[in-house]
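Ticket 4471: requesting a sanity check on a complex prediction with adenosine-5'-diphosphate. Repro inputs:
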Amino acid sequence: MYVKVAVPRPIDALFDYEYDEVTLGSVQAGDWVRVPFGNSKLNACVIETSSEAPALPEGVKAKPVIERLDASFRLPEEVLALCRFGSEYYQYPIGEALFAAAPPKPDQVLSARAKKTAAFDDSRKNRVLSDEQSRVVAEIRARCESRPDAAFLLEGITGSGKTEVYIELARDALAQGKSVLILVPEISLTAQLRDRFQSSLPERVALWHSALSDGVRQTQWRQVKEGQIRVVIGARSALFAPFCNLGLIVVDEEHDSTYKQEERFRYQARDLAMFRAKQRKIPIVLGSATPSLESIQRVREGKLVPLKLKSRYSKSTLPTIHAVSLIDESPVGAGTVRTPLAPTTIRAMQGAIDRGEQVMIFLNRRGYAQFLLCQACGWVQKCSQCSISMTLYQKRGELRCHVCASRARVPSQCGECGSAEVFGMGSGTESLEDDLAMVLTGAKILRLDRDQITSQKRLEETLEEFRSLRANVLIGTQMLVKGHDFPRVTCVVVVSVDSLLKWPDFRASERALQTLIQVSGRAGRAELPGNVYLQGYDLEHPVVRVVQGELSHEEFVQEELSMREMLSYPPFSRLVRFRFDHEAEDACREFALEVAGRVRAMLASAPGGGEEHRVLGPSEALLFRAQNRYRFDLYFKAPSLDLLYRVSKGVRAIASERGMNVVVDVDPYNS
Ligand code: ADP
Ligand code: ZN
Ligand code: ZN
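Returned structure tokens:
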């Protein structure tokens, strides 16, 4: 007997091995086997079995499989199909795609500390759905009667109780003996959400994310497969969990860009979740307060059923939005220090603190100051490997590159002109903490950013400290935006709206709006009224007007969609980015230019032809030089899946032939 296997390597091929059923036992697709590979031995996944010898080149003989690993690690057919589709769609070698689904260390059975099962909290049993929530649940049930694989977009304002809807649907699925997968964008959200599910459902709710130990992950993997765990809340990788009888998928905060994996196998978990649901013919619910334009377009095309929750569950009203113009009100300074905060903002924060309420302040930049600038000649300290300015960490007296993580001492003089007038410019979360301590009285400040929060435990502790009112100000980056629920937060500050709006990406406005609405949603979650202060220079921007209620969301969406349609951007085409990198700038540019020419020629000769305008570039990547390599981007707006595959395969083939590096990113999210 023979098997074709995928190895966990970025190689776009399957490998043939001989398999001896008599000594190794029966085998089927999805099984893991140990095989000799080059000079080493690897765990590989069986993709196909056959009784016929493979056609191999003269003189080459298929090597024998060493052993078959425990059958409890076999990938369900459904997961194998998901990986195969993902590998094709995102143009990644099957081995890398399978790696996302593989149990940790299938060649050994690991032990995990027994988890204590949290108790089912009876008090939650009496929870009543609001009329609006009941209507949404009833509509989903009714639709699923006639179409078991119906897909929904649940658009519910922050605090409307989308989670209660998910819980209700999860109960339905469990009652039918089926399993439930809840995808959330970040692990920072999972603990809080797990408690809510756990206290409302009569069985164990498991968390699934990559930060768990191998032992726990492996044990959970087997328990999910055997149906001992039937409810999983997880980050994007949970999409590949080996459910044996999945009955419902929920994708919470479906617009969130962290569903896109940004390295190696670059899949979009929300989109693959749609595939998994369709394949299994089960319902899927995408939920968000600020749906992505992709999902809104899918509603228009009839592929998603729209559902709405328009009011907050509790008596709380939506917060009042205040736009604070930094042109009219210059930021407050004290001595030689300039804070990034206007007087109005500071007064509002102080007021909240004085009333015993809490403040959240959002700044999308880590570190002390953004960069180090020579005031005599304008020189900026950049990373020697990457083409970006280094971030200043005053307290540690060092500079750090956010791309390659290299560090440098803060120079005492300018690297260009030797002047000693070198200062930190702009502000980051670290400097903001110092500024706030100076301008506020009675502030106990916490910070939530990737420098401060180095572990899940640290994160939970910080959130708990804030929730239990041991601090009254929380400063944070993007991490703060997510759905944390703090009843005493009444004042939310966005330090710089402009930095959100000016990002060079076709999704910048959509993203800025999502961020602002999510951030605003943190204010006034309970009985206390909330206030949001948006500081910025360009406050006439449509995004700001939507947040202020001066422009309707529908109008904004219509504008954005028309613009995207005109320019053939997603969701009106499938965008692919080919990123070439090389240590020599010229070699990289020339190769990128050559590939661009060939892609244009390919399109010109394709049926229909004349589509060359769909190729953009090549151009220098936004981050042109990283880790000592130069990077050029070529974008392709594919009109069809067929052309997406043909062009991508073509480009990968040219690159591999010439020994050049190319990273393919289908539906890319970041520039
Ligand atoms: P969303 O996810 O839509 O922002 P949540 O599901 O977090 O909203 O709900 C907001 C708040 O309202 C939470 O504190 C939640 O416990 C409460 N809530 C919502 N619906 C109900 C309900 N049916 N019964 C009790 N509390 C509810
Ligand atoms: Zn660097
Ligand atoms: Zn200088």
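Notes from triage: The mean pLDDT is 88. Leaving this open until the requester confirms.
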